[in-house]
# Entry
Amino acid sequence: GENVEQHPSTLSVQEGDSAVIKCTYSDSASNYFPWYKQELGKRPQLIIDIRSNVGEKKDQRIAVTLNKTAKHFSLHITETQPEDSAVYFCAASRDYKLSFGAGTTVTVRA
Amino acid sequence: DTAVSQTPKYLVTQMGNDKSIKCEQNLGHDTMYWYKQDSKKFLKIMFSYNNKELIINETVPNRFSPKSPDKAHLNLHINSLELGDSAVYFCASSQGTGGLPAGELFFGEGSRLTVL
# Structure
């Protein structure tokens, strides 16, 4: 089955700086790569996703890049704000089954 | 109008008891899931149903039994609860059909189960 590894497990950044989270996956047939944000005590919510026929996607301050050859994808958050503090999960899927990474706890320092 | 709702939100019970968590979605989605989130925040899929048919059944003790009476509902029954079952259980749904990628998962608020 799919195995998704996510790094780092924790990330502390100064407000206004950028944050980068990296994930690798094992199943070369995976073709859908979403990112979820989970605030403390809340449900995970989709923030951005990318499919295998696209190399990069951007939505305001967040962007995701995908390297299918190397089987890794990354989340970039620019101009971080206190409300970006949360746990971020990457995931990979080729059908119904979405396999999640272990999560990255991001703390934005004011 | 809540898209994916699950009840109860909190559940505290003794070891050995049996309990159920209910989930309903009003998004018209074909696929529903149960995920378990442990104390380290790891999200692990347990089950998935597509139009009332079980399509994913991960390595989960058979004390856990899902039931989908219709495509809008997916319940989770747990027998003989153990300390290690303590976790937050998330129900989710997605508009995935015919083997296509799941697409966006819409999660419920979660049900925090504490086994004493």
